[in-house]
Design brief:
With 237 residues, the chain is of the alpha/beta class. The protein contains 10 helices and 7 strands. It has a single domain (5-235), classed as 3-Layer(aba) Sandwich (Rossmann fold), CATH 3.40.50. Strands 2-1-3-4-5 form a 5-stranded parallel sheet, with helices on both faces. Helix 5 (100-116) runs parallel beside helix 6. It is globular, with a radius of gyration of 17 Å.
């Protein structure tokens, strides 16, 4: 998979850098306060200065087909250098009518169209859905996990950078469910603390850090817990 060294090099050398976050309600703003995309914005500005346009083009309810339909208007029109693609939750719901094959094909089309326009896609898996919640039928939960594996496979096949949040969050959901549920507003969406945790991990993936602030203490402690759980998982692999 492609590393993100090229992005840091561009941030060092370019006069201006555009980044678009493109997805569904996982990406769109739903609550007051810090969003995971804000964390990347602040980390970039802290390291490289005021040379960024960070554009959130998330829209609740979207599937991959919806992203393709509005790709030109809501993403490519901004002439991004990099696009964070986080999509697949709604595609997992049986009522939306997106087959696994269509989901994979749509992801691949997104990657091709972004690259043909000069933008590099960074693929993200979601954080964990609360698969034990009544709002998520078992078949939709299974489809969600399968779709996230498709994100991983597609990123590998096309050499895209991958940020695998789900791999980080699943041990927390399975082993510390009470802590995990304190990061959600419902079975499929993060609260502000959950957003901060996801944002800290995203910034780290880019090799960046947020400035120290008391507002991040809880999220940093939770990130340390994710690190601990990841180490425990690897030790028993």
């Amino acid at each position: 998979m492609k590393s993100l060294d090229w992005f840091r090099a561009r941030c060092e050398s370019a006069d201006f850098v555009r980044v678009v976050a493109f997805g569904s309600s996982n990406t769109g703003r739903r609550l007051p306060g810090m969003h995971w995309f804000d964390c990347l914005d602040l980390a970039c500005r802290s390291r490289f200065g005021e040379k960024f346009a960070m554009i959130n083009s998330g829209r609740g309810g979207d599937t991959t087909a919806d992203l393709l339909a509005r790709l030109e208007r809501d993403c490519l029109a901004h002439q991004p250098d990099l696009v964070l693609v986080t999509i697949g939750g709604n595609d997992s719901f049986a009522g939306r009518g997106v087959t696994p094959a269509q989901y994979r094909e749509n992801l691949e089309t997104l990657i091709r169209r972004l690259r043909s326009a000069g933008a590099e896609p960074v693929m993200q898996t979601y954080y964990s859905f609360d698969l034990a919640a009544e709002e998520i039928p078992p078949e939709d939960g299974s489809a969600f996990l399968a779709n996230m594996e498709t994100v991983r496979e597609t990123a590998r096949a096309h050499g895209c950078p991958l940020v695998d949040h789900l791999a980080r969050w699943e041990p927390l959901r399975q082993r510390c469910p009470k802590v995990y549920r304190r990061l959600l507003v419902d079975a499929a969406h993060l609260n502000p603390t959950g957003n901060l945790l996801m944002g800290l991990d995203l910034a780290r993936h880019f090799g960046l850090e947020l400035p120290e602030t008391p507002d991040l203490r809880e999220a940093r402690a939770l990130q340390a817990l994710l690190d601990l759980l990841a180490g425990a998982r690897e030790s028993f692999a």
